[in-house]
Structure formats: structure tokens, C-alpha cells
Write a structure and sequence with these properties.
alpha/beta, Rossmann fold, 9 helices, 4 strands
């Protein structure tokens, strides 16, 4: 009774006859547009719950190396050097949070977007939520599920997530408007955001949600290429 147990969908039943998006985008949803993305520091939400050493920025360089060796073995030094170059000045705790996030949530989102784009059916739109919450003196970062309050324009009802405030509210107006537009038409473009192209494996156009929203082509490409080889 005191154990934490997860639950996941079961493949091979009428409601899920095969793996979704593996090895390719499913034919059944070829005609359905896709809006997909991730938050810059997804794992900060989980370190707050389960890894206070990381959440409170107390991880040492030696501890980071040990964890990284466990995760990627002989690739540890290469991963560490690429992250240090890409995130100059980041402490070991922040680097570990980024590594965990990129290897799971972000890389998986990119993989799904690639497969949807390769299907050449309905369009795919990619975002990366980079706005950092001021909660816990900024340690909350752009954590898992933070974007939900923005998408539903419920900032005032979730101050423990975003901290509230005018910056969060201003961004929430833009994000929620894009989500509504996508729900209505399958296209998230609005007058209050930069032009948001569809995601292709050539351009990899990605909407960056932050105080200043912008579209970038293949953002953090060195990180994407790194995890595609491990």
C-alpha cells in the first residue's frame, strides 16, 4: 500500500492495437494536425519531489560525473563537454536537469515530430517552452506541466506554478490564444505571435515561448544531434 506504482497503456488491445509513433507515425491519424513540444527544464518538477540535492543546486562536479557515467557509460565525457560548451556557466545541478530533460521529453518530442512530418499528411507544429518560473527563488525553472496554466490562461489560479505576475499573464494570453487557434483550425498561428511555420526535417521550425516569443530553426541542434547518437 505504501509503494508508488505507475500505470501505462497496454499495446495489443482494440483501443491501442500497435505502438503509437514507433517505428513511424500511425496511419489512423495521418489526417490529424499535431501540436507538440516540451519545456526547457521538465525534470526540475521531479527533482523538487525526489532529488533535493539537484533541486537546491548542491550537486558537485564529481557527483554529476558519477550520475552521467551510470546513464551513458563511455559517452559520459563527450556529453559533459558538449553541455558545458552549450550552457557556459551552468552549475552541475542545472546541467543534470537539462541532460535528463533533453534525453527524455525533448528528444522524444522531436522524434515524434520528425515521424509526423515524414508522413506528409496533416501539418505538425513544434514549440519549446523556455519561460522560467520565479517560484522557489527561480529554482522551479521551466518545469514539467508549467505550460498548462499558460495554455488554459489560468495563471491567477496556479501561482504555485508560475508565481503569477504580469510577465506570466502576458505570455499566457499569447499561448492560450495559439492553443485555441489550433483547436479550432489545426493551425496555431495568431496575430500576437511571430509567423509559426510547420515542422519539417529540413527547417525544424520551433516556436520559443518566452517573454519574447520567436521562431528558431533547429534550436540547440548540437544537443539534438548528440542524443540521436546515444
Amino acid at each position: 500500500r505504501n509503494e508508488q506504482r505507475g500505470f501505462v497503456p497496454t499495446v495489443g488491445v482494440p483501443s491501442l492495437p500497435d505502438f503509437a509513433f514507433d517505428p513511424a507515425a500511425p496511419e489512423v491519424s495521418k489526417h490529424v494536425p499535431l501540436l507538440i513540444g516540451s519545456n526547457k527544464h521538465e525534470m526540475a518538477y521531479f527533482t523538487r519531489l525526489r532529488d533535493q540535492e539537484v533541486y537546491n543546486r548542491k550537486l558537485t562536479e564529481a557527483q554529476l560525473s558519477e550520475r552521467l557515467n551510470t546513464m551513458v557509460g563511455g559517452e559520459a565525457e563527450r556529453v559533459l563537454q558538449i553541455y558545458k560548451q552549450h550552457h557556459p556557466g551552468a552549475d552541475p545541478s542545472l546541467l543534470w536537469t537539462l541532460m535528463l530533460t533533453d534525453r527524455t521529453y525533448r528528444f522524444d518530442s522531436i522524434t515524434l515530430a520528425q515521424r509526423k512530418a515524414a508522413q506528409e499528411g496533416a501539418p505538425c507544429y513544434m514549440y519549446h517552452f523556455e519561460w522560467e518560473s520565479p517560484v522557489d527563488d527561480g529554482k522551479a525553472l521551466a518545469h514539467h506541466a508549467l505550460e498548462i496554466a499558460f495554455a488554459f490562461d489560468n495563471i491567477a489560479k496556479a501561482p504555485e506554478m508560475s508565481g503569477g505576475g504580469p510577465e506570466a499573464q502576458k505570455l499566457a494570453a499569447k499561448v492560450s490564444e495559439a492553443w485555441i487557434a489550433f483547436a479550432r483550425s489545426g493551425n496555431p498561428n495568431t496575430e500576437n505571435l511571430p509567423s509559426w511555420p510547420t515542422y519539417t526535417t529540413q527547417d525544424r521550425s520551433t516556436m520559443i515561448f518566452d517573454n519574447e516569443c520567436a521562431v528558431r530553426s533547429d534550436p540547440d541542434s548540437v544537443i539534438r544531434r548528440l542524443w540521436s547518437t546515444i
